Amino acid sequence: MHGWPYLASLGVAVLVATAFGVVIGLIALGLPEEFLILMTLAFSLAIIGIFATFDALGGVMGLTGVTGLRLFGLALDTPRDWLVPSAAVLVLVYALCRRLGESPYGRVLKGVREDAVATRALGKNTFGYKIGVFALTSGTAGLVGGLYSGWLGQATPSAFGFPLAMAVFAMVIVGGSANLLGSVVAGVGLTMIEPALREGLGVQSSQAALLQLVLYGALLVVVMIARPQGLFAERFHRLAPSPAGDGPHTAAREPRAVGDGPRAVVAPRPGPPAPPVSYEDAEVVLRARGLSKRFGGITAARNIDLELRRGTITALVGPNGAGKTTAFNLLTGTVVPDTGSVLLNGVELVGTRPDLVVRAGLVRTFQDVRLLGRLTCLENVMLAVPDQDGERIGRLLRPGVARADREVAARALEWLDFVGLADRAETPADALSYGQSKLVSLARALATRADVLLLDEPASGVDAAWVDTMLQMVAAVRAEGRTICLVEHNLDVVRELADHACFMELGEITASGTVAELTGSARLADAYFGAQ
Ligand SMILES: Nc1ncnc2c1ncn2[C@@H]1O[C@H](COP(=O)(O)OP(=O)(O)OP(=O)(O)O)[C@@H](O)[C@H]1O
């Protein structure tokens, strides 16, 4: 282009595409998902229009006569000459994607793909990762676009229009959106349709191209309906050796010793849980004052004051819609309060991003569990381990990342073992029972090393056999000195565990005290506990 050496043009194409990717990402990621897709499509149309409009950029005819190129001494005169550089780029991009996909960085990306909110609640800066993906994929598109132009012998806007976007889309969806090799196989297979029609069936060249497009569309529809995971489903990688025993797991299980770096602890034996210090004497770790939130005409939280004390369990109870989950959302930064303050160890959390709230030491679980279904149990817990070097793309190629990841796997396995599910380490999370899922979500929260845990209905909807296990686990976590606040409708669980309870109704905490005091209140018994 403009007499530049080919490699220099290619480098500029990669850089410019990367920069555009970041800018588009910054704009599009603020939009709801469906608008994000529309925006990226709209942008691709606009960029083609811009190139076609300005002659300096090539105009409608584009840059023709991209010929006589040489690359590392290779003459690239005919399309066949491009086979070697294209194959080299394929191998390079494949190796890079594979390395990324199997790295801690890739694990976060998989988490974002499955459930960005849940991944953010484990302390990951999901926005940053999404921007990174825009940059990486745009840069790769710039590289491949440069090769494609060389192969075509010209860079015309029409060559990069909707049919090409449709072809790439079909390759990924048909091959399997989470299977790298599947996408390559589908890419080769789908690209061969047109020459097969032409050479094999004698279809005219222009008709073969159109027919190929029709087949792409038809295949996309069929695959999306009949096999949405693509022809080749996601492969699970073994991350750590499974402990012996693969049979069905028994619920009644003793909490295990848990090593957590320097703070190795031994969980207590199951039995009547007892706080290490009295509730009144325990230090206040988290103090919320005057938290309020309105959604349109609904006041979901009204002037909430809440104290959580170290090594104790506080229960939030109250009828459906009382605002308990909203209170958790406000404490963790998922929802920004209209007024109020949340101090964790004296540090203000209001206005802090949810992932930074976790890093500050406050983690939450979700009422609807939100495990990352296509990740294994072990990967779910590994994702929660903080400060992993391999989660930064710049560090991925450094030696020692794989060893560090094995250590993270070992740590995560300990947490799974703690909740009695080490033998499910390699099981995809969506194959677990509800009770097991809740236990893995507890293991995941513990793996973040946050000191304060907000557990949203840890035992609700759980099979009776698993409730006992959950009770033991939560008591063991308290005995370790962590601070817990739980929302729970199961009053037996609250009676068994809570050192202190707050009653919420219509967005307000209207009573607090011991569980016995609350359940003994005639008014509350009438309003709520009577029905339990
Ligand atoms: N994002 C939102 N937009 C609009 N209304 C909301 C939002 N989040 C919560 N609410 C409303 O706030 C009120 C409190 O809801 P919340 O889920 O906090 O109650 P809850 O006590 O956790 O209920 P449950 O026990 O059923 O889980 C409800 O009326 C709910 O509809």
Strand portion, in percent?
A: 5-15%
Relative helix content: 40-55%
CATH T-level topology of the largest domain: Rossmann fold
Count of strand segments: 14
**CA distance, first residue to last residue:** 76 Å
Task: Explain what the structure shows.
This protein is α/β, with parallel strands linked by helices. The chain folds into two domains: 6-226, no CATH class; 282-531, P-loop containing nucleotide triphosphate hydrolases (Rossmann fold, 3-Layer(aba) Sandwich). Helices cover 48% and strands 14% of the residues. The protein contains 18 helices and 14 strands. The strands form four sheets. It has a six-stranded mixed beta sheet with strand order 10-11-12-7-13-14, sandwiched between helices. β11, α15 (464-479) and β12 form a beta-alpha-beta unit. α4 (104-120) packs across α5 (126-152), α6 (162-175) packs across α7 and α8 packs across α9. It starts with 5 loop residues before the first helix and ends in a 5-residue tail after the last helix. The chain binds adenosine-5'-triphosphate. The site of adenosine-5'-triphosphate has 12 residues, from β6 and α10. This is Branched-chain amino acid ABC transporter ATP-binding protein/permease. Pfam families: ABC_tran, BPD_transp_2.
